[in-house]
Amino acid sequence: MDKLEQSLNKSSVNNDIVLPSPHWHVIQRYKWRIFFLAVLVSIFTALYLSNKSPVYRASATLLIEADQVQAVAFDSVQGLNSNRKEYYLTQFEILKSYSIAETVFDRLNLQQQPSFQTSESWKSMLVGHLLEALPSVNFFVIDDKVDNEFSENIGAGYINGVSQVGSEISFEELESQKEKRARLRQFSNSLIVTPIRKTQLVKLSFDSEDPALAALIANAVGEAYIAQDLEVKSSINKNAAHWLRKRLEDLRESLDVSESRLQVYRKEQNIIDLQNRGGRGLTGLVGNELEQTSHQLIEAKNEVNQLRSLVRAVSEYGIKNIDKLESIPEITSHPVIQNIKNLKVKAKLKVSELSQIYGRKHPDLIAAKSELYTVNKHLTIQISKLVTGLGRDLKMKQSNVAALKREYKKIQREFQDVIGKDNEYQKLVRDVESNRKLFNTFLERSKETALTSDFNAAVARFTDRAHTPNKPITLSSNLLVIIAFVLTIILHISYLLVKEYFTDNFNSVGDIETKLGLPVLGVLPKIGRKRHQNLDLHYFFDEKGRKFSESIRTLRTSFLLAQGQRVNQVIGIISSQPNEGKSTAATNMAFSLAQIEKTILIDADMRKPSLANNFNIPKDKPGLAQLITGEANITDCITVDKVSGAHIMACGPTPKNAQELLSSKRFKQLLSSLRQSYDRIVIDTPPIQAVSDALIISLHTDAIIYVIKSEVTRVRLVQNGVRRLAKVDANLVGIVMNHVNTDGVSGSDYYYGYYSDDEYTEKPAK
């Protein structure tokens, strides 16, 4: 089985990647479908193009102005910022708008043009007949209450494109408006607005079957766009001027009222506005007086504090202690004391000088000392007078402080009263100033708007007008049909190849050879029958099933040729999962072998047996399970099929230990015994992915045939099953592809075409 593993490894380098089948094989399989689809698309394309005329495209170029031209340097009343990117995107959308389309449509009377004449479609005819058949009920009359509410809140407008709110609308009018909307949509679809990158240019193109009409409409769209912008600007200016005039009247009235209230308040409060005359307003005088009184009070308090400190120091030193009193700075700094001290210094200096010249009894020295004594005595008298007057000065200063406090409180009350009046006054003044400022602003803006209302710069201008095109933009009908034919073939083949690449199942024999690298013994065709209806047990012998019968005989022949010199007596039929046709393949393989050799079919799927039900064998009749356990003998377990001549051994009543029975020596001995009695032993095994029973059975078989259901069985499941068989050294001779749709597929693909001839058909054994 090493060759089996090598073949499988070559077929898939990576188990997670499904390799594609050969391209030619896919094309060969679906060649008629591809061809007929291409022909069908070509026919529809030709029919569609037969009613189409050549289409011409005319283009005009507009320059959208970034900076709007202004006659004077006034701000515009319009709110668009032309410097932003959104400005140009907005202009492009306006060019494609229904309002421009409707303007051009009505201006050029395009509803009379043949290219815009719409024939009544089958849908419209059907709706018309249905409405005629229905009772005459007016579906389009709006309730009076709704009509009144709509008129009050919104006014006249459109409901579903219908004007005249609340009025009866006939079906003809609705159809007319619907047709107009359809023509406008057709117009918009034919109009192409293409901005030219990195410029302010935009190309307006229109496609039409009439070249002259295409040029006319392209130019008309640009003209309508420019005219609409000028009309909108003019309307905005007029509305702005009207609104400004109305607001000016209101502001003038507000200004007059505020000025009148200010004047009345002045007279009532006898207010003189000193602020406008260089003063500080109403609070200026009282504020100054309050400030001056505050300074005087502070100075008086400081003087009182100084006197108190001086009196306290005098009290500590004593009135008679002239030496210490003389050291007090406040006394020393007194002007009188300073003068006396200066005299004292001079007298001392004179005494000192004379003492050095004369003796003590000299008259001049005695006179100088007498003068010094007199100065000291005078200093003592003056200090005593100053100390004596300190108490009197303190009381006088305290009285002054009390008077200043009373004056300060009085002025403070007056100041608070003035502040209240000043606040109200300033409020009225601010009201007048704000109203005057608003009035002047609106007056100036109104004059600017009035001056510039009749001047509006165009939003765009033509750089190139559209001219009548000479050549159509559409390709010829014959070329389009050829392109449709070729393109359909290419796209369909591409779709099939991609689908084939990503499909994780087997769709053909080529898939098996490519993805598994194993030989295909046979291909069983898909049998047409009702859903959930089982295939007739003896369909192999039915005249209607000749194709199926020949596929089974081909399988038998391929199997016999594949065994070579080796006789594969015990044959196991395996599949990956249930419902893949394993039992059908095993049954019909046994029927085919029974025509030439003595054959027995054994149902070894003890978990979900099916042969007993297919061959109408009683459920309680002993079978393989009872034969292994020794509960029955071999003759009791075998049923002979009269039609095919094959011997059938069903499973019997389902055992609970199926794997143990298949692993026992008695099962091996049973197969050895059957080898002596039969030429071929076909075993219907359980699915290999469900349980390990199939691997156990494969140990006792000479050959394994793997059944795959076309377009259902997953590649990875089969690869896994093949690997498991290789590990137990099972002889996997080939693959049977079941449920293959052979309609429209050549016989060479599935290699059983000629076997259906009558002279090769075998007859059932008698």
What structural class should be given to the helix and strand makeup?
alpha/beta
Percent in strands: 5-15%
Principal-axis shape equals: elongated
What's the total helix number? Answer: 26
CATH topology of the largest domain: Rossmann fold
Please, what is the CATH homologous superfamily of the largest domain?
P-loop containing nucleotide triphosphate hydrolases
> How many domain units?
4
Distance separating the two termini: 40 Å
Biggest sheet strand order reads 5-12-11-6-10-7-9-8
Cα Rg: 61 Å
| Number of beta-strand segments | 12
The overall pLDDT, averaged over residues, is 77
Task: Walk me through this protein's architecture.
There is one protein chain. By secondary structure, this protein is α/β, with parallel strands linked by helices. It folds into four domains: 2-13 and 506-526 and 545-755, 3-Layer(aba) Sandwich (Rossmann fold); 23-52 and 475-500, no CATH class; 56-243 and 458-464, no CATH class; 283-452, Helix Hairpins. The protein contains 26 helices and twelve strands. The chain has an eight-stranded mixed β-sheet with strand order 5-12-11-6-10-7-9-8, with helices on both faces. Strands 2-3-1-4 form a four-stranded antiparallel β-sheet. Helix 3 (31-50) runs antiparallel to helix 15 and helix 5 (98-107) crosses helix 8. It starts with a helix and ends in a 16-residue tail after the last helix. Mean pLDDT is 77; it is low at 10-21, 69-74, 119-129, 134-166 and 744-766.
